[in-house]
């Protein structure tokens, strides 16, 4: 028997953006535990904006388990928050709102900044470094500094060891800004793994004394790029049937539901979706082939293949909750007739 360190991880009740929380319990197993081996657990919801002090118990229900390479005999246990009955999803549990379908594939591109002492990592104490230009996919100390790549590489290895379907990384347009991509067949799978990857990044950067800044426009109204979390998505129907009339009806539905989408695409998005820096304005909806200034970018291959394949919604921002984003996209897709 081995004593495993089980890190139960959940999302708290802060709005508009929940925070990751975690606590450890030790349990003995003969081999690495499966989901069925993991018991429900509880926590004090009055400390996480999830309950009143007078009746503070919330329930943690394990939904995914991953190996934790940073910890000897460690497991990362991703949980949904449930009401005290253990069966009713807590109102803050947005994962439970996804009408899932294994045929829905999602690829999220998470952009973020590393911050140190209140400034992007690599910025001088006063003023600004050289303007944007050579940082994106750059190499060399002047481009990426000395510790960001080390953190990014270590994060990638932790994600791969956990079995997260990490697809790639790149240095981004602003100094101190990076991106990683996660793809999943099943929207819950993709969104779960995005939250786990965020957890691993936040935990890893503790020892470097570096913060992860997920705000979508941390440098405000300047010529420094903001951070997005583009949501690439496809359904079985989009991949296998598609067609121009269906695609146009889908885009009409997205236009009609624009406000519902923006509502869950992350806070302060008006600062980022300005129509500049490869974005569409927050109150406009547009789609375009290979157009990075559109709300939805249609890959070149899509019309070429008979309007089949995947689409990229460029509006979700870096602080958005992938559960809520996927939930809204699938709701709008479901409103369009495939007959
Ligand atoms: P870019 O930076 O040019 O927008 P990336 O390579 O960073 O492109 O991201 C493209 C994303 O599209 C990847 O995360 C990938 O997983 C996702 N993707 C590719 N094919 C599909 C598909 N059929 N359905 C959903 N997502 C897809
Ligand atoms: Mn990308
Ligand atoms: Mn990017
Ligand atoms: Mn970008
Ligand atoms: Mn993209």
Low-confidence stretches: none
Largest sheet: 9 strands, mixed
Distance between the termini: 55 Å
Rg over C-alpha atoms, rounded to the nearest angstrom: 21 Å
What structural class do the secondary elements suggest? alpha+beta
Helical content (DSSP H or I, runs of 4+): 25-40%
What does the oligomeric state look like here?
single chain
What ligand species are in this complex? adenosine-5'-diphosphate, manganese (II) ion
H-E string: EEEEEEEHHEEHEEHHHHEEHEH
How many helices does DSSP assign?
Answer: 9
Mean of the pLDDT scores? Answer: 96
Shape: globular
Function: Catalyzes the ATP-dependent biosynthesis of glutamine from glutamate and ammonia.
Enzyme class: ligase
Subcellular location: Cytoplasm
Catalytic activity: L-glutamate + NH4(+) + ATP = L-glutamine + ADP + phosphate + H(+)
Walk me through the topology:
Layout: E1 2-11, E2 20-29, E3 41-44, E4 57-68, E5 74-82, E6 105-116, E7 119-120, H1 141-144, H2 148-162, E8 166-171, E9 177-185, H3 187-206, E10 211-213, E11 229-234, H4 236-240, H5 244-256, H6 258-264, H7 269-272, E12 287-289, E13 296-298, H8 301-304, E14 311-313, H9 322-334
Parallel strand pairs: 1-5, 12-13
Antiparallel strand pairs: 1-2, 3-4, 4-5, 6-7, 6-9, 6-10, 6-11, 8-9, 11-14, 13-14
Helix pairs in contact: 2-3, 3-9
The protein binds adenosine-5'-diphosphate and manganese (II) ion (4 copies).
